Amino acid sequence: MNFDSRNVPFFLAPVAGYSDVAFRAICFEMGAALCYTEMISAEALVRGHPKTKLLLARDSSERYFAIQLFGSNPTTLAKAARIAADYKPVVIDLNCGCPVPKIIKAGAGAALLRTPERIGEIVRAMRDQTSVPISIKMRTGWDQDSINYLEVAAIAVQAGVCAITLHGRTRAQGYSGKADWEAIKVLSEQTSVPVFGSGDVLNAGAAISMIRETRCDGVMVARGAIGNPFIFSDLNELDNPKEAEAYSYKPPSLFIENSSCPERTLLGLRNPGIIAKTALHHLEMSARYLGERTACIEFRKHFCAYTRGLPGGSELRAKAVRCSTIDEYKPLIEIIAKAPT
Ligand SMILES: Cc1cc2nc3c(=O)[nH]c(=O)nc-3n(C[C@H](O)[C@H](O)[C@H](O)COP(=O)(O)O)c2cc1C
Question: At 316, which CATH number?
Answer without folding.
Answer: 1.10.1200.80
